[in-house]
Specification:
mainly alpha, 16 helices, 347 residues, two-stranded antiparallel sheet
Length: 347
Amino acid sequence: MNQTGTLKVDSLAPSHSMPPNSESMKLNIMARIRPDLERIEAEINRLLTSSVPLISIVGRHIMSSGGKRLRPLLMILSARLCGYRGNHDASLAVVFEFLHAATLLHDDVVDHAEFRRNQPAANTIWGNPAVVLVGDFLYAKSILMTVGYSNVRILEVLMEATTRMAEGEVLQLVHKDNLEIDELEYLDVIDRKTAGLISAACQVGALLGGVEKEEEMALRDFGHHLGIAFQLIDDTLDYTGDVKELGKPVGNDVQEGKATLPLIFALRNGSAREKKRVMEIFSSERIPHGVFMELKELVTRSGGIEYTRRLATEHVEKAKAALALFPANGARQILEDIAEYVIHRRV
């Protein structure tokens, strides 16, 4: 890292090691977490209830659209790592999925999204007002569920994370169509918008486990670095992914006027002619597939994809290093494997 906190370009020599098979990694992890995922799904179905039918209908639509349940799973695994052996962890973990779902509903309205994970976005079915209000319900329900644990510190961590998420959403809106955004500004957005909730899930797991401050902060740091890495890989998949895998059109970020790190890097390191062309494409009102493929080539040739993946890998290594404070056991191994999988995932 250089003094500005960015990865040095001269560290980008290509790796010659064979990447692990992402599908086999996923299957291996799934086999070990399936019981926890089943508990999470059962709690989602139990808690996603309201006397207003539309709330449950829209809520189940977004919840059933193929989410990874990463945040609640991380909370459960973090609590287990910290010695929690009770049976109330799944209910608290669902809070993080509800908050995540609320942000997805609001994001789709702000971005005028048409699809979410290979199915019509909720706003295209029920309209923007209904979707915004259901998102508000999920936020409020999350707070109510957390209050039930009578732990002020857990509530503080959750409220801080949701506040930072809202700030991240506003910052992202401010930077829409902004080609002047630099790397540190962009990392600040994803720290607030994505990494904050993942970090909070891990930290709350530690609080539920009743560990000392040092262990609590270690899991907070694990979640922070994992969350940054997760979003950075998302940034690369917007250029290199497949629509069937992603559940949304490739190039969606660019179409929505979001300058993510691969593009920021290309603007910083491309030739004058390449920078001009990138700016022309990004500033277009509509970007046809063929033109996006040209942009993809420019970003790739600049080293933007590789740079972003290397930075994500660096954050994954920091995440795994944060777990060194804990004894080697099953929960720690799964957390380490999830962190490693983040780099190699295709969805």
